[in-house]
Amino acid sequence: MKKRNTPGKKAKGQVLIVVALSLVVLIGAVGLAIDSGLGFIVRSKLNSAVDAASIAAARSVTQGVGEAAQRASAQAAARKFFAANFPTGYLGATPSFPDPTITFDAGKVTVDASATASVPVTLMRVLGFNFLNVSAAAQTIRKDLDLAFVMDTSGSMASVGPTVISSAKLFLTKFNKDLDRMALIHFSYGAVLDNTIRTSTRGFALNDTDAPTGSADGKGMNTHIGKYVFDGLTNSAEGMWNGRNQLNSIPLAQRSSLRVIVFFSDGTPNTLSSVFTFKKPADCTTPGSLITNDAATGTPAGLWLINMQSSTAAGKCYQGSDIVKNLDAAALPKWYNAHNLADQEFAIYPGTTLRPVTNDTSTNAKTWVNVNNASRNLLEAMAAKARSEGMYVFTLGLGTQLTTVNGPVAGDTGESILKCMANTTDAPARCATPTQPVGIYCHAANATELKPCFEKLASAILRISM
């Protein structure tokens, strides 16, 4: 008798095969979803690690002498930051991070970093996959930098002078002496240009060995800062004028894409430089600094040289505390003219709504008011002009005097002036200018806080350079 196939049994066998195949596909699909999610998490972590490594390399390229040492420093920092941001064994992944490529190009440094990671899969193994490979890449470009470093060396800082000097020297090390350009200025009665900025080649004179074309006396910035003597009053505008002038002395075609003035002071301006009118005009026809103070109606004195820290002007230009007796009753010029008699860039009077100014110098008291107000207005105006030309202004203030109200105008403080200069987000409404570069102001209440403040400004500058 002939055996016949049972249709039901055959169908059951086919269903089992289909179910088995479907389970493989289903497990593979579920595995794809799970393992892809895992791969996405690892890739996100890898991206963050590569970004951090690239930025760290760009910041650390300032360390070392010569391209080889700077490249090694950058790559070492990149490895350190990658390891810190992608821990060994993270979700079972095995990373590979080759040293980033560091390219130097006429003041611009490009960092190209990349990494891969093998992620062990789970359910996707049923489809024949054992690992999921993910990758990430990042490029950071550190723009070249032109910077004017303007330092107050007035007598009020004498007690903390060593800390000011060491903090300033540390600040300089945050920049690349071979790629960045820098000018160094210090001021009290007048302003001294210690190191001029290089107008064609790059780099700055950090030490004497760098200095043949970096300063008039062949000395580097560390040498100049190390010899600072803290003496005299506060001619802030003269320091600011020199800082802006240094950056603008570079021809347009040679200027860096990032231009910064870093301004450090512990007090409010109280000294004004210009050509003043004497009762006997022949007594003095050269510019000089007329000093007051910022705490009370003191006796004005002068004149001092505008390009020295505390040297009296020659001949009858210097009359000491008798200066007002020898000045014309309307001795203040209409325009700030200390560097060019024909300058009409910054008006001295009528001043501003907050600080009105006249040219009245008929008495000590009136001279005190007008010189004090004019010196403050002038500093803010110079900073605003620098920002309108695309410069960032970063300010650092030291001590509690900055937060103390002083001067002829009620409510006026040194801190508010420094915030106006930097155009900070919390600057007084009278000076806030959202269309201009926004800088940072850092207040060091005492000498201990000085180094952290300089670190903060350096980090902010390096951040915007990338």
Task: Characterize the structure shown.
The chain folds into two domains: 26-142, no CATH class; 145-272 and 301-464, Rossmann fold (3-Layer(aba) Sandwich). The chain has a six-stranded mixed sheet, sandwiched between helices. Strands 1, 2, 3 and 4 form a four-stranded antiparallel sheet that branches. The protein has a three-stranded antiparallel sheet with strand order 9-10-11. It is an alpha/beta fold and 466 residues long. It is elongated, with a radius of gyration of 32 Å. α5 (236-248) runs parallel beside α7 (364-388). Helix content is 34%, strand content 18%. The chain has helices at residues 7-60, 67-85, 161-172, 221-226, 236-248, 323-326, 364-388, 414-422, 450-464; strands spanning 94-96, 101-105, 108-120, 131-142, 145-152, 181-187, 191-195, 258-265, 271-274, 288-291, 301-304, 392-398, 441-444.
How do you describe this structure in short?
The chain starts with 6 loop residues before the first helix and ends with a helix.
> Which structural class fits the helix and strand makeup?
alpha/beta
Q: What is the number of E strands? A: 13
Approximately how much beta-strand content do the residues carry? 15-25%
Count the domains. 2
CATH superfamily of the largest domain: von Willebrand factor, type A domain
**H-E string:** HHEEEEEHEEHHEEEEHHEHEH
